Amino acid sequence: MDSRQLRYFIAVYEQRNLSRAADQVNVAQSALSHHISNLEAEFATPLFERKSRGMEPTAAGERLYEHARIILRAMAEAETEVREGARVIAGEISIGMANSGVKAIGVELMRTVLTKYPKLKLSLTESLSGATLMHLMVSNVDLALVYNPPSEKELITEPVLEEEMFLVGIPKLVGKGKAPIRFEELSRMPLILLRYGLGLSSRALLDDPVLLKRLEGGAILHANSITGMTGALVEGLGCTIATKLFAREELAAGRLIARKVIEPKLTRTLYLCRLRNRPMTYAMEEMRRLMLAFIAEQVRSGGWQAELVG
């Protein structure tokens, strides 16, 4: 098995058709078919089911595709690293961020890459925290800003900041004043909670799993959409637990009110995460440095109401 065979395999997997795959990699269809057959012989298992309408990956084919993408990407990164050296930040890097991260530092990160690192191709993915973690676990992103990630041996996690959570909603629901509200009273509110990723729990919402379980049990609705959540809050369908950064625009416009939660105070922690089996590249090191610097700047200036940790 070599890199050429893997590239051919990926083309067939993604196109699901030998003819289109052959056009994509610019080889004869017969040669492409031969390479796929050799791979199947090497693994002693079929990688595709040959059907009248194309090629359908088997379970083994699905597994190989994930590995092949990682292998080819690592090879490309290694080539760039050796050729360019540490003096030039080049190649490709993908960063995953929860919504708060993009709001706070996304634009500044993109501006810096475009102006200072012309040889670096940045891909920035915004998603709910749980989905961001999933992107990292399958190597769709290289670095990720995630709230309260699980303890996994595959992950290297670095705590960055701790945020205070507030009760957020329209004045009619949460009260016109901004006086603190006790957790016991809060738990009886008509809460709408973000799931922070399809199929995942809301662990990104709070550091305390016991309090989180109580909130989840009494929630009237769960959402996987920032836009849907914001719309529901403004319309008065319910209230939520969130940071001030999450609802910054609506709070500034007076459409929503944020009340501090007390007895106990509610917090969550943001982590910078990467995979343990992915070696740090020069680009990853520089992006890590930039993200931490931009986050610290936002916290110190008051743009991100949080406390730095770590």
UniProtKB/TrEMBL annotation:
Keyword vocabulary terms for this entry: Activator, DNA-binding, Transcription, Transcription regulation
Function: NodD regulates the expression of the nodABCFE genes which encode other nodulation proteins. NodD is also a negative regulator of its own expression. Binds flavonoids as inducers.
Sequence ranges assigned to domain HTH lysR-type in this UniProt record: 1-58
SUPFAM superfamilies linked to this entry: Periplasmic binding protein-like II, Winged helix' DNA-binding domain
Source organism, top-level taxon: Bacteria
Gene Ontology terms describing biological process: regulation of DNA-templated transcription initiation
GO MF assignments: DNA binding; DNA-binding transcription factor activity
Xref: InterPro entries: LysR_HTH_N, LysR_subst-bd, WH-like_DNA-bd_sf, WH_DNA-bd_sf
Family: Belongs to the LysR transcriptional regulatory family.
Name under which the protein is recorded: Transcriptional regulatory protein
Organism (species): Bradyrhizobium diazoefficiens (strain JCM 10833 / BCRC 13528 / IAM 13628 / NBRC 14792 / USDA 110)
